[in-house]
Design brief:
InterPro entries: ABC-4/HrtB_transporter, ABC3_permease_C, MacB_PCD. It comes from Sediminicoccus rosea. Keywords: Cell membrane, Membrane, Transmembrane, Transmembrane helix, Transport. This is ABC transporter permease. A hairpin with a 2-residue loop joins strand 7 and strand 8. With 396 residues, the protein is of the alpha+beta class. It is built from twelve helices and twelve strands. The chain is 49% helix and 19% strand. It starts with a helix and ends in a 10-residue tail after the last helix. 37% of the residues are buried.
Amino acid sequence: MNLALRDIRHKLGRFLLTCAGLGLLLGVALAMVGIYRGVVDEALSLTRALGADLWVVEGGTRGPFAEASRIPGDTREAVARIAGVVAAGSVTFQTVEARAAGTAAASTAGAFRNEAGRERVGAALRVQILGYELDRPGGPPPLAEGRGIAARREMVLDRGAGQPLGAMVEIGGLRFRVVGLTARAVSSGGDPLGWITLADAQELQFRLNAPAARRATASGSAGQPRDTVNAVIARLAPHADPVLITEQLRHWKHLAALTSAEQDNILTRSVVERARKQLGLFTTILLLVSGVIVALIVYMLTMDKLREIATLKLIGAPDRAIVSLVMQQALLLGAVSFASGATLLLLVKDVFPRRVVLGPEELAGVGLVVFVICLLASLLGVRAALRIEPAQALGG
């Protein structure tokens, strides 16, 4: 006789309801694990998209993602002359609140003008903008739709921004037409990425409104050099040693250099470290709560079957048979709950605001943890079952 199967057969509704509740809790714990992996995956999404072997940034800083970095634009030419560097490109990064401005045709026809004649802008879009030099490293990854940038005022945007091809996006008073779309290219903060030309990005960074421009002219600061970038990324020849080239660049006192592995380490160990710790803590708490709930459920189910267990003992069933029955009950409860929670999460994970990464490794790992939790949680029920006296089978 199996206690869990007995519950399913005679009390199907209660068993399924119990599994559904526990499954939701395990689904939340599994979602935390998926979000944790998603945070790491998103943190590395940008560096993978750029495909850089080397990052050259301002001296004394750890790169454009951890600290502010600003270097002269002609640094790229100096980096490109180093032996072993096959290509180099200047890039800028800035997180902006853009606004959807309809389609290019509608904007030209004046469909987005208000009663005062001013053009309307639509919903706000939080986007990280990358400025890069055309035909140099720093451009978008292979596109899912459309084409690459061919001229100024064009942009490539990730699908996560929700804008179709041909849409107009307004950034800092400038309008860009979306000519290409990428898939799953996001920043370490989960914002969709957008690519524009380096010239447009520098114009966005240094563009002043009319009063500020007049004030800058009056103060004599209007002629400040604007050819600055946040970093220079380089691609190396297959035989080149990135560590040696990095050491060579570090001898230039005003520059710092990072290999691709060092940049990834900064992103995963520094930029998103707090989010990783927070998600890890929540996951641990949820699994502990799940263990306590499983223990209480198994204990209650065991106490509901005092007479059946006492009867088994009365007819001579050994203790190991009683222990096996209770543990089977706990494991079946955990297996059904975990399967229902995982199935529900896989069905809805694409609607989460942050990316949820769940692969076979994550599912197997959490499943193993649930297995161990169920075994430990069943000890309370086992203890109660072993303390039942056979004479209770004859009682009222």
